[in-house]
């Protein structure tokens, strides 16, 4: 039967397809559109070169208006997937409430791990971004040009000087405000490698490579609101999290998803 699909095998192909679109170069068609049509990115001929995991048909040079499923059906009339009902599965990764993801035991254990992605609540006055912003009012010569990056990196102004201090690791930095745009936290992490707060923030290169924005990395349409545990990557909208089985940034299968309120 030409249009029969082994759906147990299809689940494995679905996961393989997901992982292949980690660095998909196009905005449209989106990774989710490509996955639903069971294309798998190979990069064999061009960066957006893809092939079908069922029939092996290949296609590249995708345009913004292309419909991946229509093209698949047109190019491969006898592909078992293209002729099937195009079934999509529920994700094998559960979405849980935050208290179920971050139990007291997990938080306690994380506090003893040097590379933990959880950070304990701080009693420091300057743990609040608004307080760090207010401290910069005393900065010599007025507000530094990269004040937003300084605040984001957990730094506040010490007295009436250019010395900045991290509320978390308590390390002081001289003239870090002179760093080029996007390099404040790079220097913070370099000079204070054990600062758990600085490690949680992406460097400029990580931000660029991850193409961080407000949109779901899978469909590039809805807002991101679902994060993965334990990698803590915020990449999915609610709809896509019900389908995908992996994290599009690190390729790993999460233990669970949780809604992040930002």
Automatic annotation (TrEMBL):
GO cellular component, one term: nucleus
The protein's name in its UniProt record: Uncharacterized protein
UniProt cross-references to Gene3D superfamilies, sorted A to Z: Inhibitor Of Apoptosis Protein (2mihbC-IAP-1), Chain A, Zinc/RING finger domain, C3HC4 (zinc finger)
Provenance organism: Rotaria socialis
A Pfam family annotated for this UniProt entry: BIR
Domain of life, source organism: Eukaryota
Extent of the signal sequence: none
Coiled coil location: none
């Amino acid at each position: 039967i030409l249009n029969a699909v082994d759906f147990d095998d299809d689940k494995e192909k679905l996961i393989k397809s997901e992982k292949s679109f980690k660095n998909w170069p196009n905005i449209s068609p989106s990774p989710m559109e490509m996955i639903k049509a069971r294309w798998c990115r190979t990069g064999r001929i061009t960066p957006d070169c893809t092939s079908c995991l069922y029939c092996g048909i290949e296609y590249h040079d995708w345009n913004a208006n292309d419909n991946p499923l229509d093209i698949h059906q047109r190019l491969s009339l006898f592909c078992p997937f293209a002729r099937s009902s195009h079934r999509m599965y529920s994700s094998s990764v559960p979405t849980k409430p935050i208290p179920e993801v971050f139990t007291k035991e997990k938080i306690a254990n994380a506090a003893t791990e040097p590379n933990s992605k959880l950070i304990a609540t701080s009693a420091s006055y300057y743990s609040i971004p608004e307080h760090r912003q207010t401290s910069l009012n005393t900065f010599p010569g007025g507000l530094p040009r990269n004040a937003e990056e300084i605040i984001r990196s957990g730094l506040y102004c010490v007295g009436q000087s250019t010395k900045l201090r991290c509320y978390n690791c308590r390390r002081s930095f001289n003239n870090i405000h002179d760093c080029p745009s996007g390099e404040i936290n790079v220097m913070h992490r370099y000079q204070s490698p054990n600062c758990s707060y600085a490690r949680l923030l992406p460097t400029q290169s990580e931000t660029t490579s991850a193409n961080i924005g407000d949109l779901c990395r899978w469909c590039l349409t809805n807002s991101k609101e679902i994060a993965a545990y334990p990698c803590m990557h915020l990449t999915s909208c609610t709809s896509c999290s019900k389908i995908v089985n992996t994290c599009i940034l690190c390729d790993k299968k999460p233990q669970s998803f949780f809604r992040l309120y930002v």
